[in-house]
Amino acid sequence: MRLKDKVTIVTGAASGFGEGIARLYAQEGAKVAVADINAAGAKSVAASIGANAIAVTCDVTKRADIDALVRATRDAFGGRIDVVVNNAGWTHRNRPLLEVDEATFDKVYAINVKSIFHMIHAIVPLMRQQKSGVILNVGSTAGIRPRPGLTWYNSSKGAVNLMSKSLAVELGPDNIRVNAICPVIGETGLLEEFMGMPDTPENRKKFLATIPLGRMSRPLDVARAALYLASDDAEFITGVEFPVDGGRTV
Fold first, then answer.
1. Does domain 7-244 have CATH number 3.40.50.720?
2. 51 has pLDDT over 90
């Protein structure tokens, strides 16, 4: 029970990496706010976890929704919030950079980057009062070793990765740890968008050839990294880009 009685928030938790993190956190003793814009999905995940989870409908691009998420979590679980995982993310389809329109660019940055700005403003005052906290931002290997066709997405994740390092430096004196988790392309609902082509065995081979361990990331891979970084085992770990990538960035 590595997170026993820890109060946690996981955004984008109705599916994919976020769902994996929420489920593993609960298994390890945490109380979990399952936050997602997909209300039905969040309710389904929270219900399957049980009494130690609540579902909160949340559009992470809206400060009012983030504030409501923090309030709902504190009301449900006694006032503290120990761990926040900023997992909600979005991408444009893999395509030449000039084919991505401004509205799509703005959506990618609003979900991937500005959402963390909102969460930091909402959660840091509380964590400073507590004199402790863990913030995990799901970045990407795309922000370390970018693939062509995803320039604007890559740059948004580069921002997440660097933001996490800067937050770690600034919030360290408050005993708030901040790390970025950087998965390689994963088996999630956005896979075909990242690939820019149908998800067929033949098309997968093109991507698997760039990953030394020979497979894509899975929700449990990311969840295990998030568990370690949130736990007391990582009490002296802050400001890292933690690749979950099968060797892709090597």
1. yes
2. yes
